[in-house]
Amino acid sequence: MAWTLTTDRPIYLQIIDVIKYRIISGVYKPGDRLPSVRELATEASVNPNTMQKALTELERDNLIATNRTNGKFISEDEAMIQKLKQDIAKDEIQKFLTNMQKLGFSQKETIEILEEISNNE
What we know:
- The protein is mostly helical.
- 61% of the residues lie in helices and 7% in strands.
- Strand 1 and strand 2 form a beta hairpin.
- Helix 2 packs across helix 3.
- It is elongated, with a radius of gyration of 18 Å.
- The two termini are 23 Å apart.
């Protein structure tokens, strides 16, 4: 996931989302060392303090851990990462269903469209 940051939400929350997506998609694997705060901040074009705030939140959620001498590492708790992946997937599906409902589609119609698209791939 790219660093496509917008002004509609606090930047540090968007950074958290990007890093979570990178973890659940396997870009950052369990036990991997993260780039330094400065490297990540440069990559995302944000202030290092903003990046540090995001990383602190991820550390509170136990998704990353700091080793004082070696930097920050992705959690090795694969069950927690899998649960995060499931939770994010459920949220995305709920947003999708809500949007389809706003367009006037019933859940049954939405499922039919999904099946049609799925069968064409």
